[in-house]
Description:
- This protein is 0% helix and 52% strand.
- It contains no helices and 15 strands.
- It has strands at residues 15-20, 26-31, 35-40, 45-51, 62-67, 73-78, 82-87, 92-98, 106-111, 117-122, 126-131, 137-142, 148-153, 159-164, 169-173.
- It has a four-stranded antiparallel β-sheet, with no helix packed on it. A four-stranded antiparallel β-sheet has the order 5-6-7-8, with no helix packed on it. It has a four-stranded antiparallel β-sheet with strand order 9-10-11-12, with no helix packed on it.
- It is globular, with a radius of gyration of 16 Å.
Amino acid sequence: SLQIIQRLSGHHGEVESLSVSSDGGFAVSGARDGEVRFWDLQVFKSRANIGISPTFQSNLEINSMIFTNDGKYLIGGSANGYVYILDTNTKSIVNSWMAYPNQIAISEIALTPDNSKLLTAGSNGQAILWNLNNHQLITEFSKIGSNMRTIDISPDGKTAIIGYTNGEITLVSL
Length: 174
């Protein structure tokens, strides 16, 4: 049976997203308090706490986070429509951009296997594929009237799968 190893505390709001580094040494958590916490999984302590609130003024929930394959960066999407990139060594925000105007929430994000493209799913039914190097929009897919909840990208990077709050699943070629 599953047994609790350790409980980690520190957030002052619902935890919305978790991700574990590829080496298993640390994890990150994003919450409705607008903070990203880096947790050392060897000693079960928070090693860094990054407040996103100075950059993003409202709707601070961090809904989705993913590490790049090399573990150097953590990419996240928030409820106010921003994508942010954190350097995992310095524990600082190195870049950010507005993916969705009018504070449309980013429900989920996914990276292509080569880390060159980022797919964002908006609560407005719009998926956007971004060039991760220059943050330029490559293409988009919209399903009006549908709230995207989750996304993923196939291992070959050619297909996205999108899940909606109405129970539908769509496959989209990238």
